[in-house]
Amino acid sequence: MAITALNSAATGLRALSTEIDVISNNLANAETASFKGSRVNFEDLYYQMLRQPGIANQSNSDISPDGLFVGLGTKISNTELDMTQGSMQTTNGQLDLGIQGAGFFKIKIMDTIGTPPGTGYTRYGSLIPNSNGNLVVNMGQGYELIPPITLPKGATNITVGQDGTVTCVNPGATAPVQIGTIKLTQLINPQGMQLLGGNVYIATVASGTGVDSTPGQLGAGTIQQGFLEESNVDPVSELVNLIKTQRSFELNSQSIQTADQALQTIDNLKR
Where would I find the H helices in the chain? Predict the structure, then answer.
């Protein structure tokens, strides 16, 4: 049984090591705008059945009320995205947009081999016009919004309403004109999306197909101009989780030491 204890403790060490990796990534992105933290979920492994419950006792025919099982360790079942709302940070930027509520900005991305362009989702709303005047997410790749919003050259007084309506004042004019509407996309299971990094997600079979809607309608959030959503990571909670995980790691290490001592004692009996 000491061998079983060694293997069980080893599975715990492997799983807890991964949890430390996830917590460390959460803490590293505590200041990353629009970042969503992850949580590690565990599940137990198979059990070795030494006695089946409900078996009649040979001496008096009584039915055993329970069985005898020895667990074989643990494993990570999944990492779950925390999609709770992050706090809104004031920037006063005309093209800084925060989503208050559910939904994602739909963006045009490149797939893993570079072509053709695909569809991604992000809650990071710092926008900037590219060389063609199309609004793109102000990240390294400069992903364009879907549907595209094109700013006329020299446009001023850019306004984005809570319903996503984008207006501006063209050069030489005084009255604002509408140049487009920013849509928000909702997914049935956003935790099922694939993470690409850079605050970008893509839909999967698990997440379901995205449904586009006007901000403020059909359960979609509203757009807040001049704000950016902050990371939803709580550093204090993550540090507490890190300490708990560290202690669990130490306990599993102690289990290995105890099992090793038991094996050593058994080995000494032969002498």
Answer: 2-28, 235-269
